[in-house]
Amino acid sequence: MDRLWFCLAGISGGLLGGMGMGGGTVLIPLLVIVLGVPQHLAQAVNLISFVPMAIVALIIHVKNRLVKRSGLWLIILSGLLSCTAGCFIARGINAELLRRIFGGFLTFLSVFQVCSAVKKTTRKG
């Protein structure tokens, strides 16, 4: 039964990630709060699941000619290096502090999204 819940959490994160919302904003809280996975492990799972999703998204965007190829490798390499550095930094942080940092990030992201939506509606109206 536990496997079913983990699969549903992964599908939820993948679907939301595919729609443009970061899948980790759902996957990590589901894993930590609902399924009791330790914070470090949940963030590692999110990073690992991000790689195949990013590759598929990149292939689709390249096929649809939505990607400028001129700086593509620089962006890919800097993203991989940043991800690796973030893993090592997160590994050295206390789980409770990591949870609070992630919660603060989600709060900031929520406020930013609401402000962006309000700004768009006031421009149109």
Can you tell me about this structure?
By secondary structure, this protein is an all-alpha fold. It has helices at 2-18, 24-34, 39-63, 72-91, 95-124. It has one domain (2-94). It has five helices and no strands. The longest helix has 30 residues, at 95-124. The termini are far apart. 11% of the residues are buried. The mean pLDDT is 83.
Task: Describe the structure concisely.
By secondary structure, the chain is mostly helical. It has helices at 2-18, 24-34, 39-63, 72-91, 95-124.
| Content of β-strand | under 5%
Gross geometry: globular
Element-by-element helix/strand order: HHHHH
Average residue-wise pLDDT: 83
Helix segment tally: 5
Q: Count up the domains.
A: 1
What's the number of extended β-strand segments? 0
The separation of the N and C termini measures: 49 Å
- Portion in helices: over 70%
Descriptive keywords:
single chain, 125 residues, mainly alpha, globular
Topology:
Elements: H1 2-18, H2 24-34, H3 39-63, H4 72-91, H5 95-124
Helix pairs in contact: 1-2, 2-3
